Amino acid sequence: MTLLQATAISKRFGGLMALSEVDFTVAPGEFVAVIGPNGAGKSTFLNVLTGLTLPSAGNVQFDGRDITRAPTHGRIRAGLGRTFQHGRLFSRLSVLENVMTGAAIRTDRSESQLREASLGMLDRMGLADEAKRPIDSLSYGQRRMVELCRALACGPRVLLLDEPAAGLNSGEVELLMARLIALRAEHELAVVLIEHNMGMVMRLAERILVLNFGCRIAEGTPAKVQSDPAVLSAYLGEGYNNARD
Amino acid sequence: MRRYDSLIIAAAIVVLGGLLSLVLADYRLRLLNVSVISAIAVIGFNFAFGLAGLISLGHAAFVGLGAYTLAILTTALGWSPWLAIPVAILVTTVFAGMIGYPLLRLRGHYLALATLGLNVSFTIVVTNWITLTGGTNGISGIPELRLGGFAFNDERRFLWLGLVLLALCAAFAITLQRSRHGRAMMAVRDDETAARMTGIDVTRVKITALCLSAAFAALSGTLFAAHVRFVAPEDFNYAHSIIYLAMLIVGGEGAVAGAVIGAALLTFLPEWLRFLGDAYLAFFGLMLLAILVFLPTGLVGLTGRLRRLGWGAKVERTP
User: Fold this and answer.
1) Which of A175, B22, B43, B298 has the most CB atoms lying inside 10 A of its own CB?
2) Chain B partners of A105 at a C-beta cutoff of 8 Å?
């Protein structure tokens, strides 16, 4: 069974083929990583999935519904969630209020229920003490964690993470991984991870999709992808075999 | 404490304004009335500009549409002003919603220019549609507001009515600002893409903000018409839109208290500084610049800054 399915997605920016015929599926509760060198089309792919960019061809289905042209907020309400590469928070709102904007996706919640749900989420992520603070007083790592809380407060079934470990120190990366693992144990949450930190990808992902120049060049388990010649040449260059000698 | 902010501000408006209404003389009372009427428009403007970040320079057109609707309904059709007020608000809000759809596709400076154009068009239409609006002669003979045998026909009585309405508007605005709707508007201004990514329908939030701001503007316009009992095109030209913007920036954008303080200050300032003569405009320009540079959060931002200074001093004292 698939929850999120992208079929033959192509995206052309003028003469540049940012994505060409990419197929991708995510099952409920699955952890999939999308990797590839810089400029491989990973972020464009997330933009197509979340509706920030419309694909030139192909279609996206979520939970059996065609959402290829659906507006972003509709996809989020249907159960997609996403964080950004550089962490985008609402700078005039406090930490708690940021998470509350996410929780407000459920319109049946009263103001106090919103507050409770958001405090609970912050507490689980170890940010309860920061709830009242303004965003600009947080460290970079804390901001990224608040963004994750805000995305989770929307109650997604598929969470798309765009380089969540970028700019974090190794301790923070460990903490992030531990929390992602704990989250998935609690909810049936599928995660799509874009990441350059290969240690993180190899430890967490059940399946990896490798993109290069907008094309899918490999897909499979971490072990399989690590030994795939196409992947090795994309990352290390054509001559990687000679370098071994 | 935050929970009761709306009540505190509403009570402060009624008590402070009520006391002033007893001690001030006629001309000052008139200025106070003008402040109260402007304050309602600026509170509305705060939804569009302060919260949702829509740079609109056409707010006076909404005020004017409200005022003219009331004037036409009460004089040409002989309606009761009490009935004309809600109709004027409704007409203006629907108009704002209709022009909002095409206009709000624009952003930043483009939106500012388009709304400025809207205001200029409004003035041109009102000036030239003589059969309906009386052209530059305006519309006179707007009936006074009365409740039973009590007519709001002098400055003091009208002020009492204005203060109650302003207090209600302020309390409503604060409550809305602190709700999920207010947060959604601020989210849209801070980062539209991130707002979409939290399930916020950005277009809808923007149009709601514009409609709310137009509704408050229309109420302000109807009060203006009922207070002066005469409307003319120049009362609602684009210069007034810029004054509303200045009032909000001086008082503090994003804050209801700031809107009220800014409206009062910029209404009284020209009178206090009358001795400057034409140099007043230079002073006004410099003051705006100084506030933009040194107090970007306006006069209400001062309290936060002072509080932080006090807090900083305490921290320094602890070894």
Assistant:
1) B43
2) 198-199
Query: Which CATH number describes the domain made up of A4-79+156-244?
Result: 3.40.50.300
Q: Where are the domains of chain A?
A: 4-79+156-244, 89-155
* Chain A residues in contact with B184 (beta carbon < 8 A): 101, 104
pLDDT of A132-156, one tens digit each? 899 989 888 889 999 999 999 998 9
- Number of Cβ pairs < 8 A linking chain A and chain B: 74
Record: contact B190-A93, CB cut-off 8 A: yes
The answer to whether B190 and B51 have CB atoms below 8 angstroms apart is no
Q: Which chain B residues have a beta carbon less than 8 Å from that of A51?
A: 196
**Is residue B70 less than 8 Å (CB to CB) from chain A?**
no
| A 61-80 residues with CB < 8 A to B | 71-73, 76-77
| Topology (CATH level 3) of domain B2-272 | ABC transporter involved in vitamin B12 uptake, BtuC (1.10.3470)
| DSSP state for residue A28 in the 8-state scheme | T
Nearest CA in chain B to A74: B199
Q: Which residues of A touch B183 (CB under 8 A)?
A: 90, 93, 97, 100-101, 104
pLDDT of residue A238: 67
When pLDDT is cut at 50, 70 and 90, the band that residue B315 belongs to is very low
Asked whether the beta carbons of residue B180 and residue A73 sit closer than 8 angstroms, the reply is no
Distance between CA B169 and CA B163 in Å, rounded?
A: 10
Nearest residue in A to B198, CA atom? A102
pLDDT range class, residue A86, cuts 50, 70, 90: confident
Q: Strand pairing partners for A34?
A: A194, A209
The alpha-carbon gap from B103 to the nearest alpha carbon of chain A, in Å, equals 20
Here the tokens at position A97 are 């209020």
> Closest Cα to residue A90, out of B187, B53, B183, B185?
B187
Question: What is this model's ipTM?
Answer: 0.88
**Partner B, chain A 187-226, Cβ-Cβ below 8 Å:** none
Q: How confident is the model at residue B58 (pLDDT cuts 50, 70, 90)?
A: very high
Residues of B in contact with A72 (CB under 8 A): 196-197
What is the value of pTM for the model shown?
Answer: 0.89
Question: Is pLDDT of A69 > 80?
Answer: yes
Strands A207-212 and A31-35: parallel
Domain with CATH 1.10.3470 in chain B: 2-272
The answer to whether B252 and B291 are in contact (CB under 8 A) is no
